[in-house]
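Worked Example 4.2. Consider the chain below.
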Amino acid sequence: MLPPMTMIADEPASTSPDNGAHARPRIFVSVAEQSADEHAAILTRAFMDSVPDARFEGLAGPALRAEGVESFEDLTRQSAMALAAFKKIPWALRLMRRVRRYLKARHYDAAVLVDSPALHLPMAKICRSLGIPVLFFIAPQTWAWGPPKWRNSRIRKRVDRLACIWPFEESYFQDAGIAARYVGHPSFDRLAAVDVSQQAIDGHRLGAQQVITLLPGSRPHVVNEVLPGQLEVATALARRFAKLRVLAVAANDDVRAQIEAISKKLAPNLPITLLQGDAARAEAIKAADLVLVASGTVTLEVAYWATPMIVMYNSNRWTYNLVGRWLIRTPWLSIPNIVAQRELVPEYMPYYTSTAPIAAQAIDWLSNPLARQRIREDLRRTIEPLVKTGAAANAAAELHALLLEKSRR
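Applying the procedure from the previous section yields the following structure tokens:
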């Protein structure tokens, strides 16, 4: 049973006689996991820099609430990834019924839906039925998941504007008749703002011949699936390299407690330095000779810092073989390989049956500085052309344009 959503008094938006757009727009915003919450918070801040009276409400996590967004519900603690989402269909249906009631009872000028298409495309349909124009930020990856024609048709019918984070997506969606614009990847804004301490990096490497960093993800179910395998690999590496240092980075307090509990149970004799926070994560990545990383946006961050990585994700193999393998249209599943259109880094996903090949690959790289240097150079060449800051501000400009279009109808 979901807890009751917070009641927010209805307040009609006013209209500016000068430009026809709403002077105090009321925006519905929805995120379903931590990184989307962070991206949406930057977008909200950028929009309110030019429209300080704007009012944002919706399904918001801690980052959005810190920007003053009034939250009906926080989905970031219970988000589901990819095939795991099938387990939450009844929950999602109940949520949709409640969202419809809340949207119907209020007068929103626009909706900003961020990522999570399994949740947000049905929500976009509800918004459209109620006359609320939709900006979808972080386009659904229909180029990777099929059948794209049907999925793109749904986007075209439900979304007014699509803010894309990869350069090739703009023309891809425009060719499908969708109003799409490449705004840049929001992670680059955050990474460019991170203050990385060389002193901290040097401290992590002091006394160690090899350093590995574990990034097990930000969602509890991902940590449960990925961290045990990472600990197995780290334990094998510790047996092979006497002066190995193991760093692990927690996405938040809950994940920190989860890492501590799993590590104590599965690898009680493995010394691990546990860190937390954006700066600490960047320092741990840059200090590492190798990163063992869960699949997701964080792989882009590792690539940004040009650190060799092995991507791991261990979902249910039966569900994947029954459903997932018929939908996936790309031979690669991790962001660096999708961008490079080749296997730039090893990826053991959507599941693996043994960590022995992963440990063997890690041992090979940690024993070969020249191989690691080649990977670093490949990552730099792949990522540097994509680096474009201002994604949130560009997405905020799309929201401005959407509101202006509505005022002219």
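Confidence is low (pLDDT under 50) at residues 1-20, 80-84, 318-327. Residues 291 and 309 are 5 Å apart (CA to CA). Compare this with Example 4.1 before moving on.
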